[in-house]
Amino acid sequence: MRTDVAVIGGGIMGCAAAYYLAKEGFEVVLLEKNAAVGLEASGRCACGVRQQGRKGALQLAMASVRVWSSLPQELEADLEYVRTGNLKIVWEPEKAAALESETTWELSQGLAGVRMLTSAECREVVPGITETIVAGKLCPTDGMANPMLVVPAFGRAAARLGVRILTRTSVTGLLTLGSSVCGVTTDAGEIEANYVINTAGPWAAPFNEQAGCFTPIRPGLDTLIITERQPHRFTPFVGFGWWGYILQPKSGNIILGLEEKTNEAFSTQVDYAELAIKARDMIQLLPWLGDVAFLRAFSGITEYTPDKEPYIGVMPGVSGYYVACGFSGQGFCLGPMVGKIISELVTGREPSVSLEPFKPDRFATDQIHREPL
Amino acid sequence: MTQLAPTPLTVVGAGPAGIMAAFTAAEAGVSVTLIDDNPLPGGQYYRQAPPEFRFSDPIDAQSGRPDAPAVLKKLPHPIIKVLNNMLVWGVFDQHNLALADGEQSYLLPTDRVILATGAYDRPFAFTGWTLPGIIGAGAALRMIKTQWVLPGKRVLLAGLGPLQLALADALIKSGAEVVCVAEAANLMRSWQQLPKFWGHWERIQEGMAYLNNLRKNKVPVLYNYAIVGAFGKDHVEKAQIARLDEQGAPIPGTERQFDVDSVCLGYGLLPSFQLAAAFGCQLRFDQNLGWYAPQHDASMETTQEGVFVAGDVTDIAGAKVAQVEGQIAGLTAAHQLGCISGKVLAERLGSLRSRLKRLNRLAEALQKIYAFRPGLAKAAKEDTLLCRCEEITFGQVKKALADGATDLNQVKLATRAGMGYCQGRFCSVLAAPVVAEVTGQSMSDLYPFTVRPPIQPIPLGVLASGAKINSHP
After folding, report:
1. Which of A195, B326, B369, B402 yields a CA-CA distance of 20 to 30 A from B101?
2. pLDDT above 80 (res A288)
3. CB contact residues (below 8 A), chain A span 258-297, against chain B
4. Mean pLDDT within A62-66
């Protein structure tokens, strides 16, 4: 088979890239190992479309939120995208100072409206939350969308533009000719392509290695607990720093997210003993949670780079090959903009957001990250 | 989660199959933990009335079935530990059962397990099926027998199977008017099954007695009819039935309407296979049932070593078959645990299997006569609710399929059908025929929704109990 562009992986990155490339007039084949697109982390994530708290990816997130605002019309689908605000809460006094300086920096970067909340204000926004909360930080333009709707909507929109989505098709390697990538090998045969886009998430690193660039990626495990539907309790997506978050999307179910764990085995197994501990912690924060029944818990495989910033762009000296992987938990929010940027790169335009922090070869000579990974 | 001491054998479900499985294994010397989520053992069939209730006839306190005491008196037993009011909500690492009572959750390590988790009422969707006043036939029978409460004064019965006759009989004897019994089976097509009833005189007599009582009270019993609509403002007031075609689909223009204040639905039972699926046991598609049940061998062992099934969870064949299957599973588990020799096992299995064969002849005849014909799924219309928990219609499911979903799990992700409180028990069986029809797949290719713990919802506080407290917040 021959095509202009072969995209490896049908998560949000792959589907968005395929969509925007097809919009530019490219003939695109999207290769997905599962029965449908969006069945891995992109479709199992916590729904957050957040700008605050990002480091290198703040500008990218801000640009993406601008894309998000017209995405439902663009994809002709209800994505349940709402700007509910994102509230970051801390209970250690020393962390309040860090929140303050984060606010100052983000305002200086152009993230409008982000502001500190007092403990009392936090309790007004999230009724019933424990009084031990010290401070909060609210970004009103952040929000959430339904991951189970977003990725399939991108896939459908891409298919309408002629993208061929080959499901149950695993990419096994790259076809190379000298220093250029000219296609992929799959379990269903070879596909020649002028351009190959690697959006394979946790499974991306071996392809980059084959192209000649070491991109350390560590698989992680992120777990969600879904409760029964509840009457409206609170509006924003609430983050508790490193160990979890809670939200109540449109459906009314409460979603509890747990901190990511290392996951060398690429497992999606839920650790229920761990879950019980987390549930206990969450109930201490929000005592009314104790009486709410939980319906299910599931895990998704996420991917982390050493500095928790993604790899986006080209490899030095390799032609016909573009990467967008290693999103370190930021992919769902960034996806739409990254898809756009990939189409800009392939058409030879200047990317509309600087990709400086995301250079794929930034760890290429880094021996420290080579060893344990 | 609180860790419990390991047990060699756990039996889940204390109905006819579970009690006999636990008793048989215990008699062979195995210490058994018998777990049930009801306040008292007995299951649905031998459901015991609460101890506070007083009955003039002691049989009535034990489900009103004369054969109940013989089973129920197997308990208590010196080496059977019974955990009532205890839910099994998951299984981890194949040998750790996650349990929960109203207060706490526990982890029970077990060597072998017998799943006797029974069955639940098959959902039957039609216009107005969620109106108040429409209840399950099994529930109605229990209301009458153990609570002495009538579901209504003017009752229409619609369903599939002999339970309808028993219910109609009980309703009449308790003073209700039965306006009609709509039986979906077409008995004219089932004469080939008649020889299989030879020898089961008791059952035939029971059926004839019910029919005589219905005839005496001039209750119309319409065969090859199913319910297609229920109407009313806040409560069911009218019920509509229609004649069925060869495939079991309602024929337009054959509708008949009745004034009612209650409808009892009894379209048969479906195996509660969720825990078996959580164990990773293979399910098989049952043609008569039109749905799935765990696969097992002649010793009732599933495709997972040391995991057994017994009773309605695998064959909807009634209490007598369940008891024999329980005994077979109990004996085999006892043998695997080293408590009885291969010789003793072979001897005892021999006689149990021939008994099971005889009982199964009748059970199979009934399963064939009362098979769920594929057309019965067509009583639902576009705007009929398919998923009650998430309020998703048949039309919404069809739209998801038109948008590209190709299996049940994708329909679930696209529509939310199956994400609610029932954990997909009801909506999966209603959605599957739609998926099969639209995508051209056969029902046997559509695996049910992925089963995730908790198998039944439990409060977060119960999950959290016993967990160690972290440093924050």
Report:
1. B326
2. yes
3. 270, 272-273, 275-277, 279-285, 289-297
4. 98
Domain architecture of chain B: domains with CATH: 2-120+270-369 (3.50.50.60), 134-266 (3.50.50.60), 376-441 (1.10.10.1100)
Ordered by start, the domain boundaries in chain A are 2-67+147-216+307-370, 83-143+218-304
Superfamily of domain A2-67+147-216+307-370: FAD/NAD(P)-binding domain (3.50.50.60)
- pLDDT for B61 equals 74
A159 reaches B (C-beta below 8 A): yes
Assigned token pair, A137:
């930080």
**CB spacing of A290 vs B460 below 8 angstroms:** yes
In terms of CA atoms, which chain B residue is nearest residue A255? B460
Look at residue A373 in the predicted model and tell me its pLDDT: 39
Q: Which of B413, B464, B468 minimises the CB distance to A283?
A: B464
Q: Record the tokens describing residue A274, joined without a space.
A: 């761990």
**pLDDT computed for residue A372 by the predictor:** 41
Residue B128 three-state SS: coil
Higher pLDDT, A365 or B471: A365
Looking at residue A368, its pLDDT comes to: 52
CA-to-CA dists, residue A288 to A282, A354, B454, angstroms: 10, 45, 20
Query: CB distance B410–A279 less than 8 Å?
Result: no
Contact B461 A290 (CB under 8 A): yes
Question: Are the Cβ atoms of A281 and B470 closer than 8 angstroms?
Answer: yes
* Closest B-chain CA to A130: B473
> Can you identify the CATH homologous superfamily of domain A83-143+218-304?
D-Amino Acid Oxidase, subunit A, domain 2 (3.30.9.10)
Task: Please report the residues numbered 240 through 259 in chain A whose beta carbons come closer than 8 angstroms to any beta carbon of chain B.
Answer: 240, 243, 251, 253
Put simply, whether A47 touches B (Cβ < 8 Å) is no
Predicted pLDDT of residue A60: 98
Single-letter amino acid, residue A178: G
At A163-202, the pLDDT tens digits run 999 999 999 999 999 899 999 999 999 999 999 999 999 9
Closest CA to A293 of B121, B107, B450, B453: B453
Contacting residues of B for A298, CB less than 8 Å apart: 452
Give the closest of B416, B423, B470 to A277, CB-based: B470
State the Cα–Cα distance between residues A23 and A37, nearest whole angstrom. 19
| Residues constituting chain A | 373
CB–CB of B413 and A152 under 8 A? yes
CA distances for B248 relative to A326, B193, B288, B375, B383, angstroms: 54, 19, 13, 4, 21
CB B209 within 8 A of CB B108: no
Nearest CA in chain B to A35: B406
Distance CA B448, CA B418 (A): 10
Q: Which of A116 and B138 is assigned the larger pLDDT?
A: A116
pLDDT under 50 in chain B at which residues?
A: 469-473
ipTM: 0.85
What number of other Cβ atoms are within 10 A of residue A114's Cβ? 24
pLDDT at A367 over 60: no
Query: If you count residue pairs, one on A and one on B, with CB atoms under 8 Å apart, how many are there?
Result: 119
Q: Can you tell me the distance from the alpha carbon of B56 to that of B373, in angstroms, rounded to the nearest whole number? A: 43
The shortest C-alpha distance from A118 to chain B (Å) reads 17
- β-pair type (B105-115, B307-309): parallel
Chain B, nearest residue to A291 by Cα: B459
* pTM metric for this prediction: 0.89
